[in-house]
Amino acid sequence: MSILDGITGPEDVAKLSMEERLALVDEVRNRIISVVSATGGHLASSLGVVELTVALLSVYSPPVDKIVWDVGHQCYPWKLLTGRADRFSTIRQCGGLSGFPRRDESPCDAFGAGHSSTSISAALGYAIARDISGDEHRVVAIIGDGAMGGGMALEGLNHLGHVGTDMLIILNDNEMSISPNVGAIASHLTRLITDPRYNRIKKDVWNALGRIPSLGDRVRNAAHVVSAGLKKTLVMPETIFDDFGVRYVGPVPGNDLAAITGVLQRVAEIPGPVLLHVLTKKGKGYGPAELDATGYHGVAGNGSGKRGSETFTQAFSRTMTGLGREDGRIVAVTAAMPDGTGLVEFSREFPDRFFDVGIAEQHAVTLACGLAFGGMRPVAAIYSTFMQRALDQLIHDAALQQAPIVLSMDRGGLVGEDGPTHHGIFDISVFLAIPNVRFGAPRNCRLLEMMLRRSVRFDTGPTLLRYPRGEAPAVDSPDPVSIEPGRGQLLREGEEVLMIGVGVMSLFCLQAAAVLEGRGIRSAVYDPVWLKPAPEEEIASLARGRKMVVVVEEGSATGGFGCFVDSMLPIGTRVLKMGVPDLFQPHACRDELLRMIGLDPDSIADRIGEEIGT
Ligand SMILES: Cc1ncc(C[n+]2csc(CCOP(=O)(O)OP(=O)(O)O)c2C)c(N)n1
Description:
Layout: H1 11-14, H2 18-39, E1 40-42, H3 44-48, H4 50-59, E2 66-69, H5 76-84, H6 119-133, E3 139-144, H7 145-148, H8 151-163, E4 167-173, H9 184-194, H10 196-209, H11 217-234, H12 240-243, E5 247-253, H13 257-267, E6 273-279, H14 287-291, E7 298-300, H15 312-326, E8 330-334, H16 338-341, H17 344-349, E9 354-356, H18 361-373, E10 377-381, H19 384-387, H20 391-399, E11 406-409, H21 427-431, E12 438-440, H22 445-455, E13 463-466, E14 489-492, E15 497-501, H23 505-518, E16 523-527, E17 530-532, H24 536-543, E18 548-556, H25 561-568, E19 575-580, H26 590-596, H27 601-612
Parallel strand pairs: 2-3, 3-4, 4-6, 5-6, 8-9, 8-10, 10-11, 11-13, 12-13, 15-16, 15-18, 18-19
Antiparallel strand pairs: 1-7, 12-17, 14-16
Helix pairs in contact: 4-13, 6-8, 10-11, 11-13, 15-22, 18-20, 23-27
The structure holds thiamine diphosphate (TPP).
Thiamine diphosphate (TPP) binds near residues 146, 176, 335 and 336.
């Protein structure tokens, strides 16, 4: 039996000898590589923290000790070693383990995550609660160098320094966000890594630990060396963290199991807030991922076939590059997602007009406002789910002041395997309520291109463009006739039912209409193109005399476009609102999820058939 198979809970790791733990590290890595190649998932970050995870479980005792992972995409070794190895092959699949920490999945997952930079705040909350309750357990936040630059992390650090309680922050520095990390904090960390004192640490301390594998007593001896070394060598003053009132320790090599275990043992004894700077290699142990950490940040599983047509992201990328060539005022902003949002080409061709601001969506939106008022034509590309972070910036900075910015929201709708933290299903309900915004939902790449080109020419007010992950459904639809706000497009005639489909849902409606036709129900299909300002007159006139109006949207049905249509049509008009139910949707592949909530073409047709009574 493998060592990993014998781990049924977190306490089993601490019982192992160092030699067994070293073997366990290899087993964990191999298991992650083999499962993720089949299921897809976050590979590189998880591979980088295997030693750190084993070390944490050797020193701390969850669930009593609270271990809080930031973002959470690096939690695969944690899942394997905290009693979930037997279900690990189900990760990210419908009904299986989540790809992120979840409190409802294991008591060892102290705090759920998916969005970045929450760990310090959550851990500080735990630490303060512990102090009030008179408990004595330990609290640790593990945060990446990318997440450390996020506003929330700095807010948490600021408060932690003020509170001064016992808490450890492990800064897992692999010099990478998804792409290479950017910003002044990243540069500060690099300066710490290259500080000559670090090399002295290596010589004095890590060499004393030995290069493994015959450990046992050597590790224990080495722990004393580390203990002494910590005081003399590792504690380096004058870091930004010390200025925050958080004692800085490091940097230490996080992929050296004996070393990191020894350091954690000693650091756990230091009172007050401590930040341990740990260096790890993203993708560690898997050659291709070590060479291309960005490409292997998240990978698709074996089952996912090659894409055929252009994705919305590719269309956005192509259009942005074209716009950049045509107009020197076009500037692009991303919050640490140049690859995912499709801005890599733009960044290569126009490095002076491209801004990766790090994981800082709030800053990205307000920066765009300043750029716009300064005479530029900014396009900030932010996934729908991460735009939630910048709600107030959209209201207070962009909409109220009528800043002519474009916010390009990829991944609008259900994203699939990443699950509830990442589904982009609240944007319509939340952002439609804001005055002065334009909100467009292109149904295909051609329309996205046209709407983006139009959007950068508006002189006032923010324009949001929302489109889903991947490519548009392979359904033919008439060429766009207008992209002016307030004009939609009738895609199909039919007297009985009016189906209004938001974005790609209009294409699903076309498919549903064909199914309904076979059952003798004649339906028109209409694409509003713009949800705000909505084509109210067109909708009102099309709705007149129909048995029923159906609004289909891949967004929350609560307060969504369906509610808006219902509110603007005369009382007595029958409006069926088909959207995402008022529940957090789980992880599963997108098609599966759409079927589960009745938003696939067949379910749409069935529901309309039931309502009409055939
Ligand atoms: C608020 C928010 N914005 C963007 C993302 C997308 N995202 C996921 S992981 C990641 C990079 C995190 O880098 P780092 O914290 O250094 O962790 P690493 O993957 O390097 O371990 C980003 C930008 C996110 N999860 N949350």
